[in-house]
Design brief:
This protein is an alpha/beta fold and 405 residues long. It is built from 17 helices and 11 strands. It starts with a strand and ends with a helix.
Length: 405
Protein backbone atom coordinates (compact mmCIF):
# COMPACT_ATOMS: atom_id res chain seq x y z
CA UNK A 1 0.00 0.00 0.00
CA UNK A 2 2.98 2.36 0.45
CA UNK A 3 3.53 5.17 2.98
CA UNK A 4 0.22 6.70 4.01
CA UNK A 5 1.55 9.15 6.52
CA UNK A 6 4.91 10.66 7.37
CA UNK A 7 4.84 12.44 10.73
CA UNK A 8 7.27 15.06 11.99
CA UNK A 9 8.27 15.39 15.64
CA UNK A 10 10.25 18.26 17.07
CA UNK A 11 11.22 21.53 15.41
CA UNK A 12 13.41 21.78 12.36
CA UNK A 13 16.16 24.35 12.82
CA UNK A 14 16.81 27.01 10.22
CA UNK A 15 19.90 26.98 8.05
CA UNK A 16 21.39 29.79 10.12
CA UNK A 17 20.98 27.76 13.32
CA UNK A 18 22.23 24.47 11.87
CA UNK A 19 23.55 24.41 8.29
CA UNK A 20 23.78 20.60 8.42
CA UNK A 21 21.23 17.95 9.39
CA UNK A 22 22.75 14.55 10.27
CA UNK A 23 20.22 11.76 9.78
CA UNK A 24 20.39 8.31 11.39
CA UNK A 25 19.91 5.39 11.38
CA UNK A 26 20.33 4.98 7.63
CA UNK A 27 18.46 1.72 6.99
CA UNK A 28 16.68 1.94 3.63
CA UNK A 29 16.47 3.60 0.24
CA UNK A 30 13.11 4.92 1.52
CA UNK A 31 15.10 7.33 3.70
CA UNK A 32 15.16 9.70 0.73
CA UNK A 33 11.53 10.50 1.60
CA UNK A 34 12.85 13.02 4.11
CA UNK A 35 13.92 15.27 1.23
CA UNK A 36 10.37 15.35 -0.13
CA UNK A 37 8.89 15.99 3.31
CA UNK A 38 11.27 18.88 4.01
CA UNK A 39 10.89 20.31 0.53
CA UNK A 40 13.31 19.67 -2.34
CA UNK A 41 14.15 23.33 -3.04
CA UNK A 42 15.08 23.84 0.61
CA UNK A 43 17.44 20.91 1.01
CA UNK A 44 20.77 19.77 -0.31
CA UNK A 45 22.47 16.40 0.14
CA UNK A 46 25.53 14.18 -0.22
CA UNK A 47 25.20 11.12 -2.46
CA UNK A 48 27.40 8.36 -3.75
CA UNK A 49 28.41 8.85 -7.37
CA UNK A 50 26.61 5.68 -8.54
CA UNK A 51 23.21 7.19 -7.64
CA UNK A 52 23.68 9.89 -10.26
CA UNK A 53 24.23 7.25 -12.94
CA UNK A 54 21.17 5.13 -12.13
CA UNK A 55 18.51 4.81 -14.88
CA UNK A 56 15.63 7.34 -14.53
CA UNK A 57 16.28 8.04 -10.82
CA UNK A 58 19.75 9.33 -11.70
CA UNK A 59 18.19 12.24 -13.60
CA UNK A 60 16.32 13.38 -10.49
CA UNK A 61 19.43 12.96 -8.34
CA UNK A 62 21.49 15.14 -10.70
CA UNK A 63 18.80 17.84 -10.72
CA UNK A 64 19.19 18.14 -6.95
CA UNK A 65 22.91 18.92 -7.41
CA UNK A 66 24.19 16.85 -4.49
CA UNK A 67 27.81 16.58 -3.38
CA UNK A 68 28.89 13.36 -5.10
CA UNK A 69 31.29 10.96 -3.41
CA UNK A 70 33.07 8.17 -5.25
CA UNK A 71 34.01 5.10 -3.25
CA UNK A 72 36.59 4.11 -5.85
CA UNK A 73 38.63 7.31 -6.24
CA UNK A 74 41.14 7.97 -3.48
CA UNK A 75 40.86 11.79 -3.65
CA UNK A 76 37.05 11.84 -3.82
CA UNK A 77 36.50 12.13 -0.07
CA UNK A 78 38.92 15.04 0.20
CA UNK A 79 37.15 16.86 -2.64
CA UNK A 80 33.73 16.12 -1.14
CA UNK A 81 34.84 17.38 2.27
CA UNK A 82 36.03 20.63 0.70
CA UNK A 83 32.74 21.07 -1.20
CA UNK A 84 30.69 20.37 1.95
CA UNK A 85 32.65 23.00 3.89
CA UNK A 86 32.15 25.49 1.06
CA UNK A 87 28.39 24.96 0.84
CA UNK A 88 27.66 25.25 4.58
CA UNK A 89 29.46 28.55 5.17
CA UNK A 90 27.22 31.35 6.54
CA UNK A 91 27.55 33.47 3.38
CA UNK A 92 26.73 30.56 1.03
CA UNK A 93 23.48 30.53 -0.96
CA UNK A 94 23.21 26.75 -0.78
CA UNK A 95 20.25 25.41 1.28
CA UNK A 96 20.54 23.29 4.42
CA UNK A 97 22.61 20.15 3.84
CA UNK A 98 21.24 16.70 4.70
CA UNK A 99 23.77 13.94 5.42
CA UNK A 100 23.66 10.29 6.47
CA UNK A 101 26.91 10.10 8.48
CA UNK A 102 26.99 6.29 8.64
CA UNK A 103 27.76 6.25 4.91
CA UNK A 104 25.85 3.01 4.29
CA UNK A 105 22.63 1.22 5.18
CA UNK A 106 22.56 -0.89 8.35
CA UNK A 107 20.00 -3.14 10.07
CA UNK A 108 19.39 -0.50 12.83
CA UNK A 109 20.39 -2.84 15.68
CA UNK A 110 23.23 -0.42 16.53
CA UNK A 111 24.87 2.73 15.23
CA UNK A 112 28.12 2.23 13.36
CA UNK A 113 30.96 4.76 13.24
CA UNK A 114 29.99 8.17 11.82
CA UNK A 115 32.00 9.60 8.94
CA UNK A 116 33.60 12.98 9.69
CA UNK A 117 32.41 14.86 6.59
CA UNK A 118 29.51 16.56 8.38
CA UNK A 119 31.69 17.51 11.33
CA UNK A 120 34.85 18.81 9.64
CA UNK A 121 33.46 22.35 9.20
CA UNK A 122 33.03 22.61 13.01
CA UNK A 123 29.56 24.18 12.67
CA UNK A 124 26.36 23.33 14.62
CA UNK A 125 24.39 20.34 13.35
CA UNK A 126 20.86 19.13 13.98
CA UNK A 127 20.54 15.40 14.68
CA UNK A 128 17.54 13.84 12.94
CA UNK A 129 16.18 10.39 13.83
CA UNK A 130 14.12 8.19 11.50
CA UNK A 131 11.53 5.79 12.96
CA UNK A 132 9.84 3.14 10.79
CA UNK A 133 7.01 0.93 12.04
CA UNK A 134 8.17 -2.06 9.96
CA UNK A 135 11.35 -4.05 9.36
CA UNK A 136 10.57 -4.72 5.69
CA UNK A 137 12.23 -1.43 4.73
CA UNK A 138 15.64 -2.55 6.01
CA UNK A 139 18.14 -2.86 3.20
CA UNK A 140 21.54 -4.08 4.38
CA UNK A 141 24.28 -6.39 3.09
CA UNK A 142 22.44 -9.44 4.40
CA UNK A 143 18.70 -9.67 3.83
CA UNK A 144 16.23 -8.74 1.08
CA UNK A 145 17.64 -6.84 -1.89
CA UNK A 146 16.12 -3.71 -3.41
CA UNK A 147 13.18 -5.19 -5.31
CA UNK A 148 12.34 -7.70 -2.57
CA UNK A 149 12.44 -4.99 0.10
CA UNK A 150 10.23 -2.74 -1.99
CA UNK A 151 7.75 -5.55 -2.68
CA UNK A 152 7.53 -6.59 0.99
CA UNK A 153 7.06 -2.99 2.10
CA UNK A 154 4.35 -2.32 -0.46
CA UNK A 155 2.54 -5.48 0.67
CA UNK A 156 2.09 -4.06 4.19
CA UNK A 157 -1.36 -2.67 4.93
CA UNK A 158 0.23 0.54 6.17
CA UNK A 159 3.76 1.89 6.52
CA UNK A 160 4.63 4.79 8.80
CA UNK A 161 7.71 6.96 9.01
CA UNK A 162 8.33 9.42 11.80
CA UNK A 163 11.00 12.09 11.37
CA UNK A 164 12.20 13.35 14.74
CA UNK A 165 14.25 16.55 14.98
CA UNK A 166 16.47 16.61 18.06
CA UNK A 167 17.85 19.84 19.55
CA UNK A 168 20.68 21.52 17.64
CA UNK A 169 24.09 20.30 18.75
CA UNK A 170 26.67 23.08 19.10
CA UNK A 171 30.24 21.81 19.18
CA UNK A 172 32.68 22.77 21.92
CA UNK A 173 36.08 24.23 21.06
CA UNK A 174 37.59 20.79 21.61
CA UNK A 175 35.08 19.20 19.22
CA UNK A 176 35.79 21.86 16.60
CA UNK A 177 39.46 20.89 16.74
CA UNK A 178 38.68 17.16 16.72
CA UNK A 179 35.99 16.17 14.14
CA UNK A 180 36.26 12.49 15.19
CA UNK A 181 35.27 13.42 18.77
CA UNK A 182 32.49 15.67 17.46
CA UNK A 183 31.11 12.82 15.32
CA UNK A 184 31.35 10.36 18.21
CA UNK A 185 29.45 12.64 20.60
CA UNK A 186 26.65 13.38 18.12
CA UNK A 187 26.33 9.64 17.47
CA UNK A 188 25.97 9.19 21.24
CA UNK A 189 23.08 11.68 21.32
CA UNK A 190 21.21 9.83 18.57
CA UNK A 191 21.99 6.41 20.10
CA UNK A 192 20.54 7.48 23.46
CA UNK A 193 17.44 8.80 21.71
CA UNK A 194 16.95 5.43 20.00
CA UNK A 195 18.14 3.41 23.01
CA UNK A 196 20.63 1.63 20.75
CA UNK A 197 24.24 0.57 21.37
CA UNK A 198 27.12 1.91 19.30
CA UNK A 199 29.89 -0.04 17.60
CA UNK A 200 33.28 0.79 16.06
CA UNK A 201 32.29 -0.96 12.83
CA UNK A 202 32.06 1.29 9.80
CA UNK A 203 31.34 1.30 6.07
CA UNK A 204 34.84 -0.05 5.45
CA UNK A 205 33.84 -3.16 7.41
CA UNK A 206 31.03 -3.67 4.89
CA UNK A 207 33.53 -3.47 2.03
CA UNK A 208 35.83 -5.94 3.79
CA UNK A 209 32.88 -8.29 4.31
CA UNK A 210 32.23 -8.27 0.55
CA UNK A 211 35.91 -8.97 -0.09
CA UNK A 212 35.88 -11.80 2.45
CA UNK A 213 33.01 -13.45 0.60
CA UNK A 214 34.91 -13.18 -2.70
CA UNK A 215 37.82 -15.08 -1.12
CA UNK A 216 35.54 -17.90 0.07
CA UNK A 217 35.37 -16.74 3.70
CA UNK A 218 32.22 -16.14 5.78
CA UNK A 219 31.13 -12.51 5.32
CA UNK A 220 31.44 -11.82 9.05
CA UNK A 221 35.18 -12.53 8.80
CA UNK A 222 35.63 -9.06 7.30
CA UNK A 223 34.02 -7.26 10.26
CA UNK A 224 37.20 -6.13 12.01
CA UNK A 225 36.07 -2.84 13.61
CA UNK A 226 38.02 -0.90 11.01
CA UNK A 227 37.76 2.47 12.77
CA UNK A 228 39.32 1.13 15.96
CA UNK A 229 42.20 -0.49 14.05
CA UNK A 230 42.80 2.77 12.21
CA UNK A 231 42.90 4.85 15.39
CA UNK A 232 45.01 2.45 17.45
CA UNK A 233 47.34 0.99 14.81
CA UNK A 234 47.30 3.63 12.08
CA UNK A 235 46.27 1.05 9.47
CA UNK A 236 44.75 2.07 6.15
CA UNK A 237 41.91 0.28 4.39
CA UNK A 238 44.32 -0.87 1.66
CA UNK A 239 46.64 -2.36 4.32
CA UNK A 240 43.88 -4.55 5.73
CA UNK A 241 42.40 -5.42 2.33
CA UNK A 242 45.79 -6.72 1.18
CA UNK A 243 45.87 -9.12 4.13
CA UNK A 244 42.60 -10.86 3.17
CA UNK A 245 43.90 -13.12 0.33
CA UNK A 246 46.81 -14.25 2.50
CA UNK A 247 44.51 -14.95 5.44
CA UNK A 248 42.07 -16.85 3.20
CA UNK A 249 44.92 -19.03 1.91
CA UNK A 250 45.82 -20.05 5.47
CA UNK A 251 42.36 -20.26 7.08
CA UNK A 252 41.20 -23.78 6.33
CA UNK A 253 39.16 -24.25 9.52
CA UNK A 254 35.76 -22.74 8.65
CA UNK A 255 37.10 -19.24 8.17
CA UNK A 256 39.57 -19.38 11.04
CA UNK A 257 43.26 -20.31 11.37
CA UNK A 258 43.93 -23.27 13.65
CA UNK A 259 47.36 -24.22 15.00
CA UNK A 260 47.47 -26.96 12.36
CA UNK A 261 46.69 -24.42 9.59
CA UNK A 262 49.41 -22.16 10.97
CA UNK A 263 51.94 -24.99 10.98
CA UNK A 264 51.00 -26.04 7.44
CA UNK A 265 51.38 -22.46 6.19
CA UNK A 266 54.89 -22.18 7.65
CA UNK A 267 55.77 -25.75 6.61
CA UNK A 268 56.70 -26.54 10.21
CA UNK A 269 55.51 -29.13 12.71
CA UNK A 270 53.67 -28.01 15.83
CA UNK A 271 56.31 -27.19 18.45
CA UNK A 272 56.58 -25.08 21.65
CA UNK A 273 58.14 -22.24 19.65
CA UNK A 274 55.36 -22.35 17.04
CA UNK A 275 52.71 -22.45 19.77
CA UNK A 276 54.22 -19.32 21.32
CA UNK A 277 54.00 -17.43 18.03
CA UNK A 278 50.44 -18.70 17.49
CA UNK A 279 49.48 -17.45 20.97
CA UNK A 280 50.69 -13.96 20.02
CA UNK A 281 47.99 -13.86 17.32
CA UNK A 282 45.32 -15.74 19.28
CA UNK A 283 44.54 -12.80 21.55
CA UNK A 284 41.43 -14.29 23.19
CA UNK A 285 43.00 -17.72 23.76
CA UNK A 286 40.25 -19.48 21.78
CA UNK A 287 42.67 -21.79 19.97
CA UNK A 288 41.91 -20.16 16.61
CA UNK A 289 42.82 -16.91 14.89
CA UNK A 290 40.12 -14.78 13.26
CA UNK A 291 40.89 -12.14 10.63
CA UNK A 292 40.87 -9.26 13.11
CA UNK A 293 43.39 -11.05 15.32
CA UNK A 294 45.47 -11.84 12.26
CA UNK A 295 45.61 -8.18 11.20
CA UNK A 296 46.56 -7.06 14.72
CA UNK A 297 49.11 -9.86 14.95
CA UNK A 298 50.76 -8.92 11.67
CA UNK A 299 50.97 -5.31 12.83
CA UNK A 300 52.07 -5.78 16.43
CA UNK A 301 53.85 -9.13 16.44
CA UNK A 302 55.48 -9.71 13.08
CA UNK A 303 56.53 -6.28 11.93
CA UNK A 304 58.54 -5.26 15.01
CA UNK A 305 60.38 -8.59 14.82
CA UNK A 306 61.07 -8.24 11.09
CA UNK A 307 64.20 -6.15 11.52
CA UNK A 308 67.53 -6.31 9.73
CA UNK A 309 69.16 -7.35 12.99
CA UNK A 310 66.78 -10.27 13.56
CA UNK A 311 67.10 -11.56 10.00
CA UNK A 312 70.90 -11.21 10.05
CA UNK A 313 71.04 -13.11 13.33
CA UNK A 314 68.85 -15.88 11.94
CA UNK A 315 70.91 -16.12 8.75
CA UNK A 316 74.09 -16.61 10.79
CA UNK A 317 72.28 -19.08 13.04
CA UNK A 318 71.51 -21.23 10.00
CA UNK A 319 75.18 -21.20 8.98
CA UNK A 320 75.31 -18.10 6.80
CA UNK A 321 78.53 -16.61 8.22
CA UNK A 322 80.25 -17.67 5.01
CA UNK A 323 77.69 -15.80 2.88
CA UNK A 324 75.25 -18.64 2.09
CA UNK A 325 73.34 -21.53 3.66
CA UNK A 326 73.49 -25.07 2.32
CA UNK A 327 70.62 -27.52 2.26
CA UNK A 328 72.22 -29.76 4.91
CA UNK A 329 72.70 -26.79 7.27
CA UNK A 330 69.08 -25.69 6.95
CA UNK A 331 67.73 -29.24 7.32
CA UNK A 332 69.83 -29.90 10.41
CA UNK A 333 68.85 -26.79 12.36
CA UNK A 334 65.16 -27.05 11.44
CA UNK A 335 65.21 -30.62 12.67
CA UNK A 336 66.88 -29.68 15.94
CA UNK A 337 64.97 -26.45 16.57
CA UNK A 338 61.46 -27.30 15.37
CA UNK A 339 61.46 -31.12 15.05
CA UNK A 340 60.90 -30.71 11.32
CA UNK A 341 61.17 -33.78 9.09
CA UNK A 342 63.86 -33.88 6.40
CA UNK A 343 61.30 -33.82 3.58
CA UNK A 344 59.62 -30.69 4.88
CA UNK A 345 62.94 -28.91 5.48
CA UNK A 346 64.12 -29.77 1.96
CA UNK A 347 60.86 -28.48 0.49
CA UNK A 348 61.30 -25.22 2.41
CA UNK A 349 64.90 -24.93 1.18
CA UNK A 350 63.75 -25.33 -2.43
CA UNK A 351 61.16 -22.57 -1.97
CA UNK A 352 63.80 -20.14 -0.69
CA UNK A 353 66.44 -21.17 -3.25
CA UNK A 354 64.65 -19.51 -6.16
CA UNK A 355 67.73 -19.64 -8.40
CA UNK A 356 68.18 -23.41 -7.78
CA UNK A 357 71.90 -23.08 -7.04
CA UNK A 358 71.84 -25.35 -3.99
CA UNK A 359 72.70 -22.36 -1.80
CA UNK A 360 70.60 -19.67 -0.08
CA UNK A 361 72.06 -16.18 -0.16
CA UNK A 362 71.23 -13.50 2.40
CA UNK A 363 69.04 -11.60 -0.08
CA UNK A 364 66.98 -14.75 -0.78
CA UNK A 365 66.74 -15.49 2.93
CA UNK A 366 65.60 -11.93 3.70
CA UNK A 367 63.08 -11.91 0.84
CA UNK A 368 61.43 -15.06 2.18
CA UNK A 369 61.42 -13.69 5.75
CA UNK A 370 59.78 -10.50 4.45
CA UNK A 371 57.11 -12.55 2.68
CA UNK A 372 56.37 -14.62 5.79
CA UNK A 373 57.21 -12.36 8.75
CA UNK A 374 56.00 -15.01 11.21
CA UNK A 375 59.41 -16.62 10.78
CA UNK A 376 61.06 -13.58 12.36
CA UNK A 377 59.06 -14.14 15.55
CA UNK A 378 60.03 -17.80 15.47
CA UNK A 379 63.69 -16.83 15.17
CA UNK A 380 63.40 -14.59 18.22
CA UNK A 381 61.60 -17.21 20.28
CA UNK A 382 64.06 -19.91 19.28
CA UNK A 383 66.94 -17.65 20.33
CA UNK A 384 65.23 -16.97 23.68
CA UNK A 385 64.65 -20.69 24.23
CA UNK A 386 68.28 -21.43 23.30
CA UNK A 387 69.54 -18.74 25.67
CA UNK A 388 67.26 -20.06 28.41
CA UNK A 389 68.57 -23.61 27.97
CA UNK A 390 72.16 -22.30 28.01
CA UNK A 391 71.48 -20.40 31.23
CA UNK A 392 69.98 -23.48 32.86
CA UNK A 393 72.95 -25.59 31.80
CA UNK A 394 75.44 -23.04 33.15
CA UNK A 395 73.48 -22.84 36.39
CA UNK A 396 73.49 -26.62 36.80
CA UNK A 397 77.25 -26.74 36.15
CA UNK A 398 77.90 -24.07 38.77
CA UNK A 399 75.70 -25.84 41.31
CA UNK A 400 77.60 -29.07 40.69
CA UNK A 401 80.94 -27.30 41.22
CA UNK A 402 79.68 -25.78 44.46
CA UNK A 403 78.62 -29.19 45.77
CA UNK A 404 81.97 -30.70 44.72
CA UNK A 405 83.90 -27.91 46.45
Amino acid sequence: MGFHYVSVKGQRASRDEAPICVISPHTAFFDILIMFVLGLPHTNSVSREENGKAPLAGTLVNLLQPVFVSRKQSNSRHNASYEISRRVQPNSLWPQLLMFPEGTCTNKTCLINFKQGAFNPGLPVQPVVLHYNTDTVTWAYKGPQVLASMWLTMCNFNNKLEIEFLPVYKPSEEEKRDPALYAQNVRGVIARSLNLPVTDHSFEDCLLMKQAKKHGLPMEAGAVEFHKLTVKLGLKFSDIKEQLPKYAAIANSKGYISIEDFAEYLKLPVSPALEEVFAMYDRDGSGKIDFREYVIGCSLVSKPAKTEETITMAFKLFGGEKGYITKDELVQILKNAFKMKDEGAEELFNQIDVNKTGQITYDQFKAYADEKPEYASLFNIYQELTNSETTKTDSNVNNSKDKTD
